[in-house]
Amino acid sequence: MAGITHLEAFTEPQLRGLVDVTVEERVPTLADRFMPDDRVFSTTFAYDVIKKSKHIAAMIGYGAEPPVVDRDAVASKMGELAKMGLKYIATEEELLALNQARSDSEKSAMIDKLTIQAEDLVKALQLRVDVSKMEAIAKGTFTYNKNGVKITVDYGIPAEHKVALSSSDDWKSADHDVIGDLLDWAATYEATNGKQPDVILMSRETQALLLKNSVIVAEAGRSINSGRVSTAELNSVLGGYGLPPVEVVSNRKVTVKDIYTGNDEVIEFMPVNRVVFASAGVGNFVYGPTVENNYQPGIDLRAYDKFEPIESVIRVAAAGFPVVEAPALLFHADVYTP
After folding, report:
1. 42-49 average pLDDT score
2. Which of 245, 332, 321, 327 lies closest to 282, judged by CA?
3. pTM for this structure?
4. Which domains does the chain possess?
């Protein structure tokens, strides 16, 4: 039947090229800094959770051999890839309109419209990957429960790296010693990892509490009547104490259409009240092989025609999993009750 697969734009090489271009042009996200993409070649795989040890060189005499450091403690965990996918269906009416186009330019415009739909499918899959990365970073978990698919993974952030302030003495109090909190948590982080975190992540709402905190206002040298400091002044105060800068996660949730119900669904991947200490090297998002992608890791985009019912389908699929190899590089603090 004459659907769309006879058109050059929807042949395998062209769709493969569309995926490559979409991936190359994608703007790196916040999550990519901590969990870049990687590849594995099996749907089940082992990965190592590493507990780093801090060492210092020994003083030795001339001609003496240096001591051998202990190996880092390594715990091996199993992971299993989760299949992701989405498709767009070109209906019989769309196919009729495409094949009855009154001019080459009209036909080309309709092909372009379907090509944009194909590109949107790839971006929708990338959004699912981004959300799972941020959930791993900001929640320490990976969860999915929809249409009979249920996945729950706890990455095991150390207990001492999880803090929840009492509602009677938290960051909602304008005179709370927020610098003292951050210094204590940074000290715990450094004792575990031998380094300070690269960045302090928080929501805009949490940053707003810091900007109005009386301790921060006073440290910034503002007058007693000043209501708040600027973001630059906040980071300057924290930097004066050797703390990393604050980075606001402005998009900590995403509103999408539930493909099973058709209703809008809000996916919150970072709690509004959570402060996260993080560093590069947390882990990776691993893409694995799929049958569709010729048994290779990565994103597959393809088109196929159906006869019963008459329709053409554009389908994207991939298999992947967010892997946290160094959970101690994350520290979570819930600083107020929402």
Report:
1. 57
2. 327
3. 0.82
4. 8-54+72-155+280-326 (3.15.30.10)
